[in-house]
């Protein structure tokens, strides 16, 4: 809805690059008006990022005609494709470590909230996962944003509070999205996938039903990942204050959970 990405060759270096140019649909323009930002500011907000280990590197540039664009490396594989191929599960733990570190970088290093963490926004390159598409990211100061962004983002990875009118994405809603991604990688299903496929979102209105269905879902965790159940229960908590506060806390808790699995196999810390 926000723009197009063009694969191009740098005539100076011969290298391939991905160039994101803003071509907003009316939906995107409405979102900009709601958030009180111009198209130029929207693109600069996404492109103005210093290099991080698990965020797709990018630079904000302006061409000779004054058109702003974002330059990024080209990635040909993404987590959604790995899931469809069936080979994401075998690398689930390294991917989750990378994504948790990426959220740490977004929340604590860059002071932002992503707001739409999902498999097709996770690029795979050089053996690691990198968070991409920060077009919806916004300031994370004080844990809230200045304009409502309810019902935005992928429904499968959307925190329950983000379904409600006038909601604001927070670092805790990104943590919920991480829990949903982890569930997909480890069990093959998102926590409320069956309901959402039927268009049923009533689970967000009932905490009791939510918790009951969540426990049934967590029971599907494979034996070798049972040590992650407590972490996922916390990430997917109905109430925001019961989740890890941000990517930094999530990263620490994941490291602790992976230190020793049910078979006594040691995992390295970050």
Describe the structure.
It is a single chain. This protein is an alpha+beta fold and 270 residues long. It has helices spanning 26-35, 39-47, 79-85, 92-109, 171-187, 193-197, 207-218, 229-235, 247-258; strands at 3-9, 16-22, 59-62, 68-72, 77-78, 112-113, 122-125, 128-131, 138-139. The strands form 3 sheets. It has a 4-stranded antiparallel sheet with strand order 1-2-4-3, covered by helices on one side. It has a 3-stranded antiparallel sheet with strand order 5-7-8. Strand 7 (122-125) and strand 8 form a beta hairpin. The two termini are 35 Å apart.
What is the strand and helix layout of this fold?
Layout: E1 3-9, E2 16-22, H1 26-35, H2 39-47, E3 59-62, E4 68-72, E5 77-78, H3 79-85, H4 92-109, E6 112-113, E7 122-125, E8 128-131, E9 138-139, H5 171-187, H6 193-197, H7 207-218, H8 229-235, H9 247-258
Antiparallel strand pairs: 1-2, 2-4, 3-4, 5-7, 6-9, 7-8
């Amino acid at each position: 809805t926000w723009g197009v990405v063009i694969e191009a060759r740098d005539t100076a270096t011969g290298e391939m690059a991905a160039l994101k140019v803003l071509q907003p649909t009316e939906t995107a323009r409405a979102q900009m008006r709601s958030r009180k930002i111009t198209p130029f500011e929207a693109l600069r907000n996404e492109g103005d990022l210093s290099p991080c280990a698990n965020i797709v590197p990018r630079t904000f540039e302006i061409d000779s005609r004054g058109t702003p664009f974002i330059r990024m490396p080209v990635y040909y594989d993404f987590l959604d494709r790995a899931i469809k191929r069936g080979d994401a599960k075998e690398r689930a733990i390294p991917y989750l470590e990378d994504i948790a570190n990426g959220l740490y970088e977004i929340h604590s290093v860059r002071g932002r909230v992503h707001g739409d963490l999902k498999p097709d926004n996770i690029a795979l390159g050089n053996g690691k996962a990198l968070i991409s598409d920060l077009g919806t990211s916004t300031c994370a100061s004080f844990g809230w944003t200045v304009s409502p962004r309810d019902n935005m983002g992928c429904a499968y990875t959307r925190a329950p509070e983000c379904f409600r009118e006038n909601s604001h994405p927070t670092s805790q809603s990104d943590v919920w999205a991480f829990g949903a991604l982890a569930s997909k990688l480890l069990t093959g299903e998102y926590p409320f996938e069956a309901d959402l496929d039927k268009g049923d979102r009533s689970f967000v209105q009932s905490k009791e039903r939510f918790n009951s269905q969540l426990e049934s879902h967590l029971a599907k965790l494979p034996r070798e990942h049972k040590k992650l159940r407590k972490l996922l229960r916390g990430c997917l908590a109905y109430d925001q204050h019961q989740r890890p506060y941000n990517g930094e806390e999530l990263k620490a808790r994941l490291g602790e959970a992976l230190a020793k699995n049910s078979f006594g196999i040691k995992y390295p810390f970050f």
